Predict the 3D structure of the following.
Amino acid sequence: MAQRRQIEDHKELSGKRIVVLGGSSGIGLAVAQQAVAQGATAIIASSNADRLKQAVATLDGKAEGDTLDLANERDIDDFFQKIGDFDHLVFTAGDTLQLNELVATDLTEARHAFELRYWAALAAVKYASPHIRKDGSIVLTTGVAGRRPHKGWTVAASVCGTIEALTRALAVELAPIRVNAVCPGVVRTNLWQSMNADAREHLYASVGKSLLVGRVGEACEIARAYLFLMQGGYSTGQTVVLDGGAVLV
């Protein structure tokens, strides 16, 4: 009976505190919305104050927002000291990766690609982990570029592959805190906002046609994987791929 109760406890987020870095839009906001719908309280952090305010307004008074510069290690430390203990950390912060053939790659920009997606994630885990409660977890974010790179994806594949390796290493080092990652394919989010609307829709249509499911993903679909990993007490060191079949075609 005790074992059954313990397993059932992992299926509920009621009363849990969920921290989502990069939670003011896209996949991160969808994670926060679904967690709140299951009874959790969300703490979302983003560098964009206006977008953060709008995001908090969608969460039925069950969320708080903090403006956070993820490029500043001290700010990250101060943020986690301020919020205190919590149950689950989700890191979805990211920017559009520049895709170029190696000969045209600006190495300064390539280094910058690691700042938010890798170094900020590592700093977040470093300062968050002492505050994560028993049976808590961390869910990071990678991408299919590391599993099925195309020509011109050298930097993108490197970043994604690094996050998968980091996930496995952290799962070993931080146990019993569970550490997993979600690996989305192309998803309709503001990650592509640097493109004009027509180019963005053309991207979604062309990529969608190439996928086994015939379309690109939606943020709400990807968010369910984060909730599964938070609730699944037997999963650690794993990367869940949701790519519409991209790695198979």
